[in-house]
């Protein structure tokens, strides 16, 4: 894929999110339309990936799982990038909406990342002969996912809303350091994992299917983030409106 591909996808995802929040009239239907379009695109992706695209030259039909494995990993990275953007924005200007969006993008990013790792493991078994290998790409990806799982756990264990939002924003910025390490790991170290594909290394049909799979998952990413954001906002409202606990009084013996 061209080097600008992740930036283009990030711009599209950011545009969808901004439109959802900036134009109130779109909030009731935009995520639903995204989910419906995603389902239709997924149906076509199954045909393109399983039937229309040719088998990979070295991996044969096993390589077809890459049409969903790669888009899942890309959606994970886009979600984490949105998360760190929200974290920085929250530290610059306190906003419960920004904090809720940071929480939702982190959780959806972990979901896509875990799915990508699972599919990568399924692909590795017939290709490498093992389900898992201590490869730089795999290790760095696992560390990245664990850092965001820790981010979400930290949010659950911190009761004070303002402290949770501030500290988790800082944790998000620290955790994001792992993402460029994941991206460049196959170039920095002698990795068993292949380097990122380019337009020259992919057959034209395979390139079309890869892009179609990526766009399909982008629709789902937006829909999932919006619904998870609504859950986060609902929890915030309940926590902020809840009366403080009355102090305990000592009872004389």
Account of the 3D structure:
The chain has 253 residues and is mostly helical. It has a single domain (27-236), classed as Four Helix Bundle (Hemerythrin (Met), subunit A) (Up-down Bundle), CATH 1.20.120. Helix content is 74%, strand content 0%. The radius of gyration is 21 Å and the shape is globular. It starts with a helix and ends in a 12-residue tail after the last helix. The model is unreliable at 244-253 (pLDDT under 50).
Write a brief caption for the model:
This protein is mainly alpha-helical. Helix content is 74%, strand content 0%.
User: Number of helical segments?
Assistant: 8
Pattern of helices and strands: HHHHHHHH
The termini sit apart by 75 Å
Reported CATH architecture:
Up-down Bundle
Number of folding domains?
1
Query: Main sheet?
Result: none
Radius of gyration: 21 Å
Q: How many individual β-strands?
A: 0
Morphology call = globular
Quick check: average pLDDT?
Answer: 85
